[in-house]
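One-letter codes give the sequence; each number marks local geometry. A record appears below:


***
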Amino acid sequence: MTTFILYTLIALSATAAILAVILYFVAKKFYVFEDPRIDQAQAELPGANCGACGFAGCRNFAESLVKTDDISKLFCPVGGNDVMKKVATVLGKAAAEKAPTIAVVRCNGTPEFRPRTNIYDGAKTCRIAHNLYMGETGCPNGCLGLGDCTIVCDFDAIYMNAVTGLPEVNDEKCTSCGACVKACPRMIIELRKKNPKARKIFVACINNEKGAICVKNCKVSCIACGKCQKECPHDAITIENDIAFIDSDNCKLCRKCVEVCPTKSILEINFPPRKTKESDASISVEA
């Protein structure tokens, strides 16, 4: 019995040794070299795996950074310029610097301005509601308010305001990954240039219906009157398809367009209060 057990152990050991040798040669035969710089580049990336760079995760992005000679067109929105500079240093390549952007919700159709005309009783997702009907108000292009954008945000940077029924972006948390932009079926969320002190000026409307119909459905709709375009000294405003658009790259934040908009569809956010004529008069009297 003891001899049988001994032979069995020897046979098993010999088999294991033979298999180990076979596995060794197989591994050598099919070994795939992986550039060690991929690990180095990945270590500099934020590890969010959000896909904002256009690749399926940070690992895939790191591989592309290593394999591409010119990485100026590759960019990690979450890490921004600082991370791209570190990656470029590791790889010995040049990274292009890009202006930071932030998500902006181009709809101001609160219940005060855009009254509800019906109640939606279907699946509580914007994408399904958008495919079924125009929404709970008369505006066929405004925010549906069901929060698809908040669900896809991995950074807790966008939430639904219970009072306005609209999504709001937390400027400090927003990484400009673009997930909310892709999730919105109405395309009311866009990435715009991030200005100092988080100041923004934009047309908070995408409804391209004719003026009278727009205002009937929402009091703060853009009516494409063209006054803002004429007033802008920097050629930052265009009118196309009956809707005004402010180019954030050309806008100098002068706020002149805001003053002339008859429907108040242009929003100015995070600016100091404007000086009124009364305050100017009191200053001159005191002087």
Remarks:
- Residues 2-29 form the longest helix (28 residues).
